[in-house]
Amino acid sequence: MAPMSTSCPCGLPAPYARCCGPLHAGTAAAVTAEQLMRSRFCAFARRDAAYLLRTWHPAHRPAAIDFDPKLRWERLEILDTAAGSAFHDTGVVEFRAHYRDGGEAGEMRERSRFVRQDGAWVYLDAEG
């Protein structure tokens, strides 16, 4: 796990303890779909399966998450957002996630759909 004093893995300059940490701990909630996307990327980077499962829509949530021990999520780029503000019930976040798999660099690009469930943002699925 990343030290608490470094920048958050989600790509924002704040330390983890003041950025995604409160969301992961359940003491804060994502205000926007982009904030949830960033916190979910951070959860993948930190291997926080409980948070990922908690923020996944029940209709699409897997039973468990198995992390590949050779895969390291390194950097997130937000490419585009549509809706997903505090005033919306749906949102889309397009991103590029950079990783290393056994030392080899790679990237994943996706347009993720988010919805509000009981007032909280959750990941629904990927477009397309």
From TrEMBL:
<dbReference type="InterPro" id="IPR048469">
    <property type="entry name" value="YchJ-like_M"/>
</dbReference>
<comment type="similarity">
    <text>Belongs to the UPF0225 family.</text>
</comment>
<feature type="domain" description="YchJ-like middle NTF2-like">
    <location>
        <begin position="32"/>
        <end position="126"/>
    </location>
</feature>
<dbReference type="InterPro" id="IPR032710">
    <property type="entry name" value="NTF2-like_dom_sf"/>
</dbReference>
<protein>
    <recommendedName>
        <fullName>UPF0225 protein ACFQLX_05125</fullName>
    </recommendedName>
</protein>
<dbReference type="InterPro" id="IPR023006">
    <property type="entry name" value="YchJ-like"/>
</dbReference>
<dbReference type="Pfam" id="PF17775">
    <property type="entry name" value="YchJ_M-like"/>
</dbReference>
